[in-house]
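Figure 6 in text form: structure in, sequence out.
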């Protein structure tokens, strides 16, 4: 998506991370695009193990926890965000040696889904493979279970109808280590690809692409983390 925006608008595109509770300006990318510099003047950031609540060292992934430093009426103390990321220890290539950075992407814990041999995926997990094909503008992942094996279907929103891109995308997906290893051990299969017209997925009233887990209808479904 970043590449498409840069090409269309001929501009530099910067990602940012924020939330209603902390404000939209929690952290933002610099020109180096190597993580998000966060607002240390207003917020104290900690990274914890989401299961034990213990602090995690820098460069290790865990749950982001914020404490507001200047808010008076409704301060937040060690507010658990349910977002997974890490604090990057190394200085940023931009030269801002004293500003800490959050690694990207920041992943929502509630969006995690386990597949096959207990491997975890999340909504942006397949972005590199899918968006490497320029004709694809959005996608959705649908997971089902057939004959005791997980089955992944990709719904691809394309710029034009009638494109023959399924073979190219499948070849790229098979190079993903998680997909490759689970297919090899017989725990996963790739279903057919469904191509839909531009705007179809956006019309389903969602802010971010979803993983649709149809296994929840089964008795032995895998649960979200």
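Output sequence:
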């Amino acid at each position: 998506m970043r590449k498409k925006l840069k090409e269309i608008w001929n501009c530099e595109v910067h990602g940012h991370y924020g939330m209603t509770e902390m404000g939209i300006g929690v952290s933002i990318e610099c020109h180096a695009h190597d993580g998000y510099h966060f607002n240390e003047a207003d917020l104290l950031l900690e990274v914890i193990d989401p299961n034990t609540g213990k602090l995690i060292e820098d460069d290790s992934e865990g749950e982001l926890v914020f404490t507001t430093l200047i808010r008076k009426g409704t301060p937040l103390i060690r507010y658990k965000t349910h977002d997974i990321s890490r604090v990057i220890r190394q200085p940023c290539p931009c030269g801002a040696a004293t500003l800490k950075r959050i690694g990207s992407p920041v992943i929502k814990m509630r969006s995690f889904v386990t597949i096959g041999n207990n491997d975890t995926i999340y909504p942006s997990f397949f972005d590199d493979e899918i968006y490497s094909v320029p004709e694809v503008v959005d996608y959705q992942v649908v997971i089902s279970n057939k004959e005791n094996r997980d089955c992944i279907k990709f719904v691809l929103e394309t710029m034009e109808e009638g494109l023959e891109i399924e073979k190219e995308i499948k070849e790229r997906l098979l190079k993903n280590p998680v997909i490759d290893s689970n297919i090899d051990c017989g725990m996963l299969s790739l279903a057919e690809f469904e191509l839909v017209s531009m705007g179809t997925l956006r019309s389903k009233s969602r802010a971010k692409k979803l993983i649709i887990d149809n296994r929840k209808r089964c008795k032995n479904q895998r649960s979200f983390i």
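Caption detail: Residues 112-217 form a domain with the GMP Synthetase; Chain A, domain 3 fold (CATH 3.30.300.30).
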